[in-house]
Structures are given as structure tokens and as C-alpha cells.
Amino acid sequence: MGQCYQQLTLEERRAVFHLRAAKAPVQAIADRLGRHRSTIYRELARNTIQDADPYFNGYFPTVAHDAAARRRQRLGKLHRDARLSAYVIERLKEAWSPEQICGYLRHHGEAGSRVCHETIYQFVYSSSGRDLGLFRHLPSARRQRRVRYARKARGVTIPLSNTIQKRPAHIGERTTFGHWEGDLLAFRKEFGKSNLTTLVERQSRYTVLIRNPDRNSTGVMTGVIQQLRSLAFPARQTITFDRGTEFARYSLLRHQLGIESYFCSPQAPWQKGTVEMPRLPDTTGGAHQPLATRHVFSSDEALAVALRVEFASLRRARAGRAFCLRVSDRRA
Known about the structure:
Layout: H1 10-21, H2 26-33, H3 37-47, E1 48-49, E2 58-59, H4 61-72, H5 77-80, H6 82-93, H7 98-108, H8 117-124, H9 127-131, H10 169-172, E3 179-186, E4 195-201, E5 207-212, H11 217-228, E6 238-241, H12 251-257, E7 260-263, H13 285-291, H14 299-312, H15 314-317, E8 325-329
Parallel strand pairs: 3-6, 5-8, 6-7
Antiparallel strand pairs: 1-2, 3-4, 4-5
């Protein structure tokens, strides 16, 4: 095996500076320092300054040493770029998701100011990001980052025959009214069992927030039935859920309201994208963030959240899509 490569020291860089000033060739400098000539070539290529003012052009040992030290820092892009990190932090505090920040910079930012959403997540959950409490500004507001697909199997409480692949194709085209998506906004365990059921009509984005005392499936489905019962049948034809146990009593919807239920594929809740979208506050994703650290919340607070969601959804209104909200307070 070859010897371990050693970085040039400040003294060696000073020697390179003096030898270059004396017009010594690269091979002579390499022999003098006991280095390979490729090392000297790389050093000069990486650390020679090219400035518009010829007076500042050249190789300077102290500047070269500092530049090499910065490159060797094993830090992410946002740790190295204070201006970019300040912009990202400001957007996060304004309830932007990492995906939104990434997308905006991709289309509107300068070439050097672009950043991947994964880089933002790594920055948020780094030691400096934790000190700033940046995780609180994420739509999910999780203190610890969850490993993808790490959930343990819960057992087959929902048959695979009801998957979204069996749903009629025209529902996915959003051309007819009456097809809904449902989700449950649950909070951290230390804040109790209160939660919100969210229903979004796929075509109009008409949104219903239902306050539940717990995650019991019968109670959750009863709340959904109470809210949809007043609608005519054409306005409540189907609902698409994820495979959470809180929706295991979906058969109540069929028996009492004639609503057909469909479910996302295992580990694929993103297939019900209208209501899911936990990182985009366009629909109910925006409802989770202000309540993520709450246990007790009143109907007025839920209405305030609903209005915030409605304001965030003005982007959809620009595309000519109507958006309404309805809040229900169902007590135990």
C-alpha cells in the first residue's frame, strides 16, 4: 500500500511562494519540498487568485492555506454559506417547506444559491439547526427525523383489495365533484389523544376539519359520517384514505351513507396527494403546523387555523379552483 497523503503545511506553501517568485519550475519546487509535481500543480491551480485587478493576481501562501482549510471542512452547503442559510431560515419561519424553498431557488435563484431539499433537512436536524429550533418550523415539526419506511408492520386491518388501483380512473382526473380524501392530524403523545380529521374534496378543494377526542376508528368514522350526512349523494361518492388503523371501520361509511372507500398502497400515503402533502401548506398540511405543539385547542383556534389554510390556498384560486372550509367541533 502507498503512503498516506499529507496536506501541504503553511511553511511548504511559503516555500512555494518564494520559489515561484524566483521563477523556479514546478519540477524544481517539487524536488525541493520532496513532493510529487502533481501536488504542486494542483496546489497552484486550486489556490492561485485570478482577480480583475492584476495587482491582486497570484499565489499567496496564507490565503491558499485558509482556502484549503475551508475546503476540508466536512460541513454542508448551508453551514458554509451564511447568506444562503439566512435565506433558508427566513423562509422556514414563514412556513415554507424545504421542498418549496428548493423549488423556488431552482427556478428563481442564482446558480450558486440553489440547494437541495435534503440539504435543508440535514441542516435543520444538525446540531446548529437544533440549537435554533428549526424543526419547529417544519410542517411535521418532528424533534427527531423519522427513517423512511421504518414503521413496523401493523397487521392487515384493511384488505389489499381496496387499494387505490381499484378506484375508477375518472376520479384521478378531478373532473367530477363528490370524491374526497381523508387524513388524520395526530400530535405528539405527551399532548394527549386529541386530533383532527381532515377531509378534502378532490375537485374543489372544499376542506372539512373535524375535531376528535381520540384516535378510535369508530369515533373517527362517526365524525366523518356526521359531517357528510347532510350532503346529497352526488357530493359524497368516494373517500380515499391511507392505511392507518384509525380508518379500519371504513365499512360504516358504506353501510350508512353508501360511500365507497379506497386506500393507498402500503407505505405510500402520498398517493392521496390532495390531503396528504405534509410539506406543502396548500391544503391541510398547513393546518398541522400551528397545532403541532398543542394539546387543547378551541373551536375559535381551529377556525383561525382554517383561515390560515384558506389564505395559503390562494395559489390554487389563481388557477380558477374554488376553495372553502368547514370546521366541526365534535366533543367526546
